[in-house]
Amino acid sequence: MELLMELMPPTSLQKFRISRYISASFPDWLMSIGNYLPNVVLMEMFDLPNCNSFPPLAQLPPNLRVLTLGGMESLEEWNTTHSIGEDELMFRELEEVNIYDCPKLRIKPHLPRAASWSIKGSDNVLISWAESVSHNDAPSSTPVGVSTNLTVENEEVPLHQWRLLHHLPAISDLHIERCCDLTSSQEISWALGPLQSLRLESLVQSELPGWVGELSSLQQLVITHCRNLEELPDIMSQLKQLQTLAVVMCDSFRQLPLWLGELTSIEKLRIRLCPAITTLPNSIQQLTNLQELEILGCRKLEQWCEAEENKPKLAHIEQKRLYFGPRRAAIPASRR
């Protein structure tokens, strides 16, 4: 700590990173870093297993854009109280907050405003909030934590306990990776209502949760590396706003459903490295807005698309890209 006290950077510094710091606390200048380094736009603190303190929100640099906290196993609380007279639009330029491997961390009393949140292996950040926020009680004039993108990775707590979602009313993009329990609740489903883009990655479940089919505003759905997933649930036939559907590296995925033709807003369909899919449903002819079909690494499905009797079913699609493997180039639509 004594060495860090003597190493205060120049005030012109814009990127501040510290790692492998073994002390439990920081020197005074770092705990008031906004006063000493006001020009910092990127701040990364990682691999600090003994550290149990972090500068309060009000003491962070006023121009901060990206904040990363990682590997801080002893950190229990981040104080986000505004200073007296502090403008509630503080940190309106903050773009990213990344928190990983901070299992004890709780953010109190409110969520800072950010355009993008990424949370990995930090359960308390998800669950240490009020039980619920009714859509009738949600504040309209005073902004709570506003986010457009949220990534949650490697979490053990079930989705219905992710109370953080109640404080992200503007969330439009959600990426869930390696999370075991995606059971939801009425309150969580309401919080996910505005979602426009959903990416589900490396899930062990053989079925998608039903709440996916209730996302009436969803425009993009990417399902990748879900090796036990066999099919899409029927409730997904309600996704009338869906424009892009991608299924990638899902080894057990057997077929696209007949009701796919009901999703008439689909413009892009991508199937990659799903060897168990051998055909497309005849209802694909109903997807009159489908502009792009991409199939990669699905040998039998590629052969089905190339069969003369099936070509008329795909004739309305402007761009068809079929990749037969690394030694063969894609066959242009003009030659098929």
From TrEMBL:
Which stretches make up the R13L1/DRL21-like LRR repeat region domain?
2-72
The UniProt record lists the Disease resistance R13L4/SHOC-2-like LRR domain at 170-309
Keyword Repeat in the entry? The reply is yes
Q: What's a Pfam family this protein contains?
A: LRR_R13L1-DRL21
Q: Which domain of life is it from?
A: Eukaryota
Q: Which InterPro entries match?
A: LRR_dom_sf, LRR_R13L1-DRL21, LRR_R13L4/SHOC2-like
Can you say what this protein is called? Uncharacterized protein
